[in-house]
Amino acid sequence: MPLLIKLPTADRCKKIMENDEAIIYCPNELCGAANSNRHDSCQLCNTPLPKRYLWAVGGGRTVGSVGEMLQERYLIISSSVVLDTKPGLLPQIPDIENAPEIRPYLRLIPYRLYIPQAYGVVNVGSDEILLLEKPPLYPKGTPEFGKLLPELITAWHEASSIRQLNWLWQIANLWQPFKSEGVASSLLDAQLLRVEGSFIRLLELRFDTEHNPPTISSLGKFWQQLLPNTRPAIAHFLQEVCNLLLSGEIYSSDLLVAVLDKGLIEVARNQTPTIQIATKTDTGPIRQRNEDACYPASGSLISKPPTNQALAIVCDGIGGHEGGNVASNLAIYSLQQQVEQLTQVPYENIEPAIVLEDLEKAAAIANDKISQQNDTENRQGRQRMGTTVVMALPIAHEIYFTHVGDSRAYWITRYGCYQITLDDDVASREVRLGYAMYREAVMQPASGSLVQALGMGPSSSLHPTTQRFVIDQDSIFVLCSDGLSDFDRVEQYWDSEILPILDQGSDISQILDQLINIANSKNGHDNVTIALLHYKVKFSEPTSPIEVPLTDIPEPKQEVSFSSPVGIESTSMLPTRYQKTKVLSAGNKNKPFNFRFWLIVAGFFSFSIACGLLLTRILGEQASSPIAIAPQPTPQTTTETPNVNPTPTNSIIYKNNQVEVKNKISLYKTTTPIESEELIVTAGSKLIIIDEAAIKNIPGDKWLRLQTCIVSTDSESVTTNTTPQVKTDKEKPKEEKGKAKNIIQKGQQGWIRLSSLKPNASITKPSNPETPSQCESDGQKTPSAEKSPSSGNEVDSDRKTSPQKNR
Fold first, then answer.
1. If pLDDT is split at 50, 70 and 90, which confidence band does 296 have?
2. What is the percent of the chain with per-residue pLDDT over 90, rounded to a whole number?
3. Range of the domain at 229
4. Could you tell me if 504 and 544 lie in one domain?
5. Are both 791 and 751 inside the same structural domain?
6. pLDDT of res. 607
7. Higher pLDDT, 402 or 656
8. Within 10 Å of residue 334's Cβ, how many Cβ atoms?
9. Is the peptide bond prior to 296 cis by the omega test (within 30 degrees of 0)?
10. What is the three-class DSSP state of 274?
């Protein structure tokens, strides 16, 4: 039974909520002093006082009366909201192995901008109630403080057209990761879907029913409720989207996101952005050398317009006196050179999937440059230099982020401060894998040790995080090294130091100086580097309905955009690459007859038949002649489609999305194999077909995307070198340029031509295309929306670990 302490009167309870007379105990274990809730820091030792208002998940049951205390710790603010008065103590941690309802909160931690995170549990009677951190509540200082934020349906009619589409775009992006964790029903519950400014916020997660799981078409039915209050500019467009969802023509979340992207582009023509970027780096009061670096150079202040380029990068070097500053500056130079070309591409010619791929490849190239420098200098173990990186690239109404390590990015609006990157440390990895709750994981030894950084290993083991967001409100983005972010200094000072940029028009350079002073005076243990990006928007509602042609559903591209292997300097990031942006849509009945296309096809087949007859005649002459004729080499200048996936007959069989390899086959990272890395699949391996959307229509053939479940150890079937050497374009033979071979690893994905397979059952459109296939070996779901965290060793350096991380 919980211990309930009854406060004296109802008036006293009201004062606790309204006048902040609740007692918060200092989290400093050497202090523990009692403080009034109205104070932001301990009055005795000046330690920040976290104010953690938690949502109690109890199936609608109240946890107690307002003003009561649960277990001498949690003050009940409302029927399902409690305040942790002892934030320095570890919450009660449940047995995760026997609590499957908690695991989705852990595994979906990369999406914590949208969902609350598991904090701990509290016993109420015989029930164990889950407590969620950062629920969608009105913040302190507002008249509605402690109440739930408005539902999506309630706030819909007041939103602009770009914000309405932005909300739906976020839901579409969340569908697949939620579906993979069995909680997609959460996105169909009006009571759970809340909004905070431009963000979708979930109150809690709700599990799907096994006998009737939701499908992507369910979104069409749910969104139809929004049509009466939809802005006129997008009302017809949204109606068409709902119709396509209900009819099954939009059958995957990727297609839905692509369609909404088209609508956002049209609406965003009425939004004018103005961007300011200011940077500064400082050695700090203790360090002898500054191992941080930034772009633009420290002390810069740029504006767009008049300049065309807007890019911000922060790097925090690893390696101490052994060269952390070299690594961070090398990363800045490499990333800036790679990404600068993206800023010169007209927005109409850019595809988001390709931009995200480019940013990942840019991080990989920077990684290999630093790694090569380490190898050249024969650096081993702790002597190897490396760096973290966080990079922001605003393009039109969007902003793209790339992140490796524990440097962070924060998004600050008038509604709050949001950390949008997840540290690549041991604690976060344990949570993401579903092994531990964050409050428990962060208390473990070496929990703050990095699991990946640029330059510490080969790019094949690097997993940079790339994200994109739609911006429809004035915002401040803070990119910083841990010299500022440690001890939650951004969360502590955002409203007093950074928010005035939005509310009062404060000078961004002066705010930057103040943040440097806070980092040095409040932390002071490390170098500090900060980039502030001020994004202002001016939006006017369209006067006429937007026109978005939906006869050809814009299926997302899957090709990677680099033409050379990771780790080799590439000059392929050219604006002309983005001229080919259209992908043929499957099953389009309304497409007009293309006479020129079919004339070319007929000519091609006629030519093929003639060549076949000629070849037959030649072979016949060879067979009857006693003189052996040496085969002629294939000309290097041929423009014919290469013979990719030369799969022996009956080397692979597939049925019901399960694939078994009998003889060695080749997969490719993209559907452009001449430019793509080749993945060797050994005999005896087992794979699965990812989903229906991976069955692509391209001119002349279909392709399948496969993922490995079991990798055979039959080394005799593999003749290629599994450790690709980094060569320059001049060193690499012309026929091998842009192509590397590796043995495929478990969980990796690749493409193969459908025509090269010998099936024992035909492939048909799955009845539920968004339901991921499952590996027969372990029964685990395909992680289609989430990258696996690095499984390598933790980064070994002299940088600090867990004491400075969020707790």
1. very high
2. 56
3. 152-250
4. yes
5. yes
6. 58
7. 402
8. 20
9. yes
10. strand
